[in-house]
Design brief:
221 residues, mainly alpha, two-stranded antiparallel ribbon, 7 helices, 6 strands, 62% helix, 6% strand
């Protein structure tokens, strides 16, 4: 099958700064930097870096997701699981734009803010960490469905669609937040650094392997 129109549109605009929308990246970047600045200041004062690491965990896991999603297009030459063809200031990968990257850079921090201090407390009969992860994942799936209905996020496969959102829930979001609370609850900073370092090492190795190959969807010169 030939590539979908959404795939062709995304590849046409891949890593090209949108001349009409590019400027709003600057205030988005400023907001993200401010949030991290506040959290780093608090962490220095309290010695608790858990929120920062939760934020980095979600972003790192999202990076890995976006790489394998790009590879789906590479090997099918049809479509990635999800595609972001337009309405973006900058499309980074075939299904990842700068707006999504900024959102995921703070999603873990937002999630951490909602976690109860007592990790043994239950919500609706579930351990609160799992209850919060499930709740956040469900909310994100609902948001994605609206983005799909608005043609901002394109889905082509029946197993990854609004009428069958199980995989979107499980590997699109749930494990992001499970990873975030796992790292958040680790007993010491050294352990947090180790796990987050492994996550980013995987992402960097994947990029190092596939970027030089000039594969469409991963890189496009």
């Amino acid at each position: 099958m030939p590539p979908t129109q959404a795939s062709l549109d995304a590849l046409t605009n891949l890593r090209i700064l949108n001349s009409e929308l590019g400027w709003y990246v600057i205030p988005l970047l400023a907001i993200v930097l401010y949030i991290y600045g506040v959290e780093i200041k608090n962490a220095r004062e309290t010695g608790n870096w858990s929120t920062i690491f939760a934020g980095l965990t979600v972003l790192g896991l999202d990076l890995i997701n976006e790489i394998w999603n790009g590879l789906v297009f590479v090997f099918t030459n049809y479509s990635a699981f999800w595609t972001t063809p337009g309405a973006s200031a900058y499309i980074i990968l075939i299904g990842w734009n700068i707006e999504i990257a900024f959102m995921f850079s703070i999603a873990g921090i937002i999630f951490a803010k909602f976690l109860p201090d007592d990790k043994n407390k239950k919500i609706l009969g579930l351990p609160n960490r799992w209850a919060m992860a499930i709740g956040f994942a469900l909310f994100c799936v609902i948001v994605e469905i609206f983005l799909n209905l608005g043609n901002y996020l394109i889905w082509e496969y029946w197993w990854w669609n609004w009428y069958n959102p199980i995989l979107i829930f499980l590997i699109g979001y749930l494990y992001f937040f499970v990873g975030a609370f796992y790292v958040y609850d680790l007993p010491d900073r050294k352990s947090k650094v180790k796990i987050v370092g492994i996550i980013y090492a995987i992402g960097i190795v994947l990029l190092a392997i596939f970027l030089p190959l000039g594969i469409a969807g991963i890189i496009n010169f």
